[in-house]
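User: Hey, quick favor. My workstation is busy. Could you predict this chain's structure for me?
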Amino acid sequence: MILQRIGNRGLFLGSFFDGAARKSPYQRITLDHELDIAPELGSDLTVYACANLVAEMASALRDQNVRPGDKVAVYKQDCFDIFLLMCAVARIGAVPVALSPSLDGETVTRLLERCAWPHLITDEKKLREELPAEVAGRCARVLLVTGEAEGATPLRRNPATHPRPFARPRADRPALLTHTSGTTDVPKLVVHTARSLRARYRPQALGARLLIRGRETLAVRVSFVHSRLVTALAIALDRGFPIVITRDATPQRIADIFAEVKPGVLEAHPNTFVEWETLADDPRGPLSNVLAVSSTFDAIHPRTVQRILGASHRRRPFHLQLYGQSEIGPTVGRATSRRRAMSADGRCVGFPFPGMTAVRVVDRDGRTPGPGTPGFIEVRSDGRALTYFGEDARFRRQLDDGWWRMGDVGHRTRWGCLHVSDREVDVIPGFGSALEAEDTLMSRLDALLEVVVVPGEEGAPTPVVVTRDDTPLDPDRWTAATAGLPAMRPPVQLRLAELPRTATAKVRRLELARRLWAPDSGARPAT
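Assistant: No problem, here it is.
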């Protein structure tokens, strides 16, 4: 789109911290953990320290004969140094392949094979406990950032080394491979370019500049391998925001951190925000300074928005909803105030960015798209990825004359607002919107931590519920909460840990339905 293209020279991971280090070298980056590759630096870093660390690790990679154009997979224990290693790989002109620590060894092996067995950066624990033995002998080279193992080479930084300059590739060449959530299948590898990353950055940066005028502390709990982290950090670095990055999302730990730093902007997965609702009751006021709550990965429950914004002491706190996908970035967005949080329709995800993105809803089953007859959602943006690595035909099947099919169904209102009803693969015939039913149940039952409506036996809609502290679901309250909703089977109660989830905390609905009705699942109604 025209405003994404003008002067788009790319957003390069290899020089990600360089500009900020020159402009604001002492800009703080605070972690809730130490870096595996440099534990001596502690958890209080600066942009300058991160830039130096990236340069040192890039030199270490060159010393191990990693060359421009090589693919280098990063799969290690969860830590912010995953992102720093991705930047180091890109700094020497190689292409980082970012693999979530939550992926199992079998899935990682299949992705490595798809990449023709690239260089692999990992650690002793992952190599010994999760990856099959064949990996060490088939990858171009296995580089260990911690520990030692036969057939693997230690990868260590040398602070005394002379940093090599950034090897700037063409902006339209592959610059980063990330994977999809894998909610329905083995994850696909999405190929990003520096130009597509910059195109994604622009609408988000514009929204942040219009809505956030002052200098705020940004608190981030986002998967370290997700492309969203690239744009979120790029905006914060450009604006000079102090940054707090956490890997522990448990409410108790987050409450301690937020009570001390009092962040002004929160960025996390929607399901993470649901767990953080309890922070609103903390007497230390960990949410008291929140100005903006941002969620990009999926729609967020109105109850959650109201709880978090309601705990803020700021005059006009707001929620910024961005609807997008790994393959194309954010495409529509909207802002919701505290006053309108509960009255807002949780299925309304917003409007396209003028001059940057476009959206349309096309007929499904020959019926005009509307509230009761959702159509296929398609979007356009220069933030669209190049392809799926090794699966170009699969990528092309989702394109229609430049329009990208999101895999969701929904409709647009007469004012142009996009409403998302369900994922295409999750539609339950004759039920209506499962996501809308879930929003309603969450708003009526404070005890719910999660509710997911999946097709049960013979396709009948079955709610799977998780309650706070695993307290038994009250049958009378459940009956009252379901009044006016389409008929469902009795709810099945699980613990949060029993839900199959992706790296971005989304529930894998098809896998949940499969597990739920397996003969040995032991699933029982909650009421």
